[in-house]
Specification:
Blueprint: H1 3-23, H2 34-49, E1 52-58, H3 68-84, E2 92-95, H4 98-114, E3 126-128, H5 133-146, E4 149-157, H6 161-171, E5 175-180, H7 183-192, E6 195-197, H8 205-209, H9 213-241
Parallel strand pairs: 1-2, 1-4, 2-3, 4-5, 5-6
Helix pairs in contact: 1-9, 3-4, 5-6, 6-7
């Protein structure tokens, strides 16, 4: 790694530590994201009326280049489970890959434990819906239609089958918040889901649903780095126009 790369990594780590420390004191605040605000309200309403939360993690293995999205989905699942654990119908997670289904079970158990309700956890709440993207979609449709689901979150690596799930959720009267690391799927969900997570919002669910300082600090650090990059690009462009460089 070059000196510049090392300095960049160290600077990023320092920013995360600084903002994580500030987050423990209630600062800074995350910028508002409509999809998460809508989801938060919907989860609260599902607890009140005794309906179910469904989280779908997609069909991608964590060991592929798409592994970051289902990993973010697992963090999202933990925080969402903690919020919905007191519902009369416990949350359900579905996956289209065997190891991801096992991890979903472990994550559900962790969420119930964090909520102080470990006895409510049922291993059957984490399900292998199918072994491919479309078989997983076919296995998820009955859950959406027949198990009193009022809130559904799609967070992971999905193909265009996510649009079919969004249509089924709408027919079932469920609020669906969908996110994928594929831009084409984001476009499809924008037209079909109740709310869509765009760009890096797919990876931010745990920070917006939970209150862990490390999650909040890392997101704020990313925003700061983004603005620094924009400022650097604009400054370089201005210097080029002025003939200084």
């Amino acid at each position: 790694m070059t000196v510049a790369g090392t300095l960049l990594v160290l600077g990023t780590v320092a920013l995360i530590l600084i903002f994580s420390t500030l987050a423990r004191r209630g600062l800074p605040k995350l910028r508002s994201v409509q999809a998460f605000a809508h989801l938060y309200r919907a989860v609260g309403l599902s607890v009140e009326d005794g309906s179910r939360l469904l989280v779908s993690l997609g069909a991608s293995s964590l060991l592929t280049r798409h592994g970051a999205a289902p990993l973010a989905g697992l963090e999202f699942l933990r925080e969402a489970t903690q919020k919905a654990s007191v519902s009369d119908r416990p949350p359900v997670a579905v996956a289209g890959e065997a190891m991801l289904a096992f991890l979903a079970q472990d994550t559900l158990q962790s969420g119930f434990r964090a909520a102080g309700a470990p006895d409510i956890y049922q291993p059957t709440s984490g399900r292998l819906a199918g072994m491919t993207a479309f078989s997983s979609m076919a296995g998820t449709i009955p859950v959406l239609s027949d198990e009193h689901v009022s809130v559904a979150g799609l967070v992971g690596h999905f193909g265009l089958e996510a649009a079919v799930l969004a249509d089924v959720a709408e027919r079932a009267g469920a609020v669906m918040v969908g996110g994928s690391d594929e831009p084409a799927v984001q476009a499809a969900l924008y037209a079909s889901a109740s709310e869509v997570l765009l760009g890096e919002e797919v990876y931010a669910g745990a920070a917006y649903l939970g209150d862990r300082a490390a999650h909040v600090g890392s997101l704020v650090a990313q925003d700061v780095l983004r603005w620094l990059l924009i400022a650097g690009m604009l400054g370089a462009a201005a210097l080029k126009v002025l003939g200084i460089i």
